[in-house]
Amino acid sequence: MAAARGATKSAGISWRVLSPAPLILLQGSEELLASRSFERVRALLRAEGEVEVIGFEANAYERGELLLASSPSLFSETKLIEVRGLANMNEDFLEDTLAYAKAPAPETTLVMHHSGGVRGKKLLDALKAAGAVLVDCQPLKRDSDKVDFVSQEFKAAKRRLSSEGARALVAALGSDLSELAAACSQLIQDTTGAIDQEVVDKYYGGRVEATGFKVADAAMMGRADIALSTLRHALATGTDPVPIVATLAMKLRQVAKVAGARKSAGQLASELGMPPWQVQAAQEQARYWNADDLSRCIRLVAEADAQVKGASRDPKYAVERAVTQIALAARR
Asked: For residue 79, what are the contacts with CB-CB under 8 A and spacing of at least 6?
C-alpha cells in the first residue's frame, strides 16, 4: 500500500485525505480528529474486502502482541491494527513497535494515536524515519480553521452552507469540536436545501457562546431593538456581561482596523493577521461608522469593561448602556 500524498509534511495531512498505509501516526490531542482518522481507514479497507480489526491500548500492551496480531491470516484477510494511547505507552510496546517499524508486515495497516507529550519520542522519530503517514490531529484553535471544518462537513454531505451560517455555527459551538461536528450532522439530517444563518439560529441561537456575537453584530449595524432584546434575554438567563463587553470591544477594534482601507479582504487579512471572512464581516459593518463615532465608542466600551469587572455596582446597566450607545452611533 502506498503512503498517502502529503505524508512528508511535518504538520501532517488532514484526515479527510488519509488513505491506508503500512504505518500511520495520528499526532495531536483532538480526539474527534483521531476518531475520524481511525474510522476513515477502517471504512476504506472494508470497501476493498474482508478486514480483521485488532485494537490495543499502548499502556496495557504485552510483549509479542503486535507480532502475533500482524501474522498472516488463515483466510488471507487484510489486517488493521489500531493502537491508542501512545502518550502513555509502556516499554513492551515501545520495543516491539521499534522493531516492527523496520519491517512492517504485508497486507497490514498499523494506525497509532499519540496525543502529545515527550513520552515515546524515540518511537515517533523512528516511525517518521520509516516513512509513516503523519496525520494532523491538533486542536483547531483559530475560528477560521473551525469555519473551514464546518464548511468541509457540509461539502462532504453535498449540502450548501452559507458563510454567515458557518460563522454562526462556530460562534455557537466553537469551543468543542465534537459538539460542532454533531451540530453539523443534525442540521444535515434534519433540514433540506441550503442552510443559512437563520436556520442555524433556529437550532442553536440560544447558546451562551453565540450571545456576545449576536449582540455585538446587531449593535454594530445599528439594530438596537435586536441587540437589546438579545442582551436582556442573555442577562436574564444568567449570562456574564464580561464576555459580551469583550466581544463589543473586539468588534469595534476590527472595524477600526479596516475602516477607510481601499484593499481587498485578502490583502487586509494578510496585513492585519485576521482571517479573510473576519475582515469581510468588519468591512460590512464599517459602512455604518465614521472615525469620530468609532473612537468615542471604543472609549465607551473601555469604561464599560472596567464597570462590569467591579468598578460599578450595576454591571448589567453598564453593558446595556454600552450596547445602546453603540447601536445609536451606527448610521442606518
From this structure: 51, 52, 54, 69, 70, 73, 105, 107, 108, 109
| CA atoms lying within 13 Å on the CB side of residue 255 | 27
Rounded Cα gap, residues 79 and 90, in angstroms? 23
Residue 81 phi/psi, 5-degree rounding, is -110, 120
Residue whose C-alpha is closest to residue 110's, from 77, 81, 88, 142:
81
Domain with CATH 1.20.272.10 in the chain: 144-329
- Domain topology for 144-329: Zinc Finger, Delta Prime; domain 3 (1.20.272)
Query: CATH 3.40.50.300 region(s) of the chain?
Result: 15-136
Spatial contact of 314 and 288, defined as CB atoms under 8 Å apart: no
pLDDT, tens only, 222-264: 999 889 988 888 888 777 888 889 889 989 999 999 988 888 7
Please enumerate in sequence order all residues whose Cβ is within 8 A of that of 102, keeping only pairs 6 or more positions apart, or say none. 130
- From residue 119, alpha-carbon distances to 84, 116, 135, 329 in Å are 14, 8, 18, 56
**Considering only the top CATH level, what class is 15-136?**
alpha beta
CA atoms 43, 44, 45, 46: torsion sign: positive
Q: Which residue in the block uniquely carries the three cell numbers 509534511?
A: 9
292 Cβ partners below 8 Å, 6+ apart? Answer: none
Closest CA to 120 of 141, 137, 101, 133: 101
Q: Is the pLDDT of residue 9 over 60?
A: no
Identify the DSSP state of 167: H
DSSP 219-288: HHTT-HHHHHHHHHHHHHTT--HHHHHHHHHHHHHHHHHHTT--S-HHHHHHHHT--HHHHHHHHHHHTT
Cα separation of 199 and 272, whole Å?
A: 31
Residues 308-318 pLDDT 10s: 988 888 989 99
Angle, in degrees to the nearest 10, between helices 163-173 and 177-190? 130
Q: Which residue has the cell 445602546?
A: 324
CA dihedral 246, 161, 35, 172 (to 10 degrees): 20
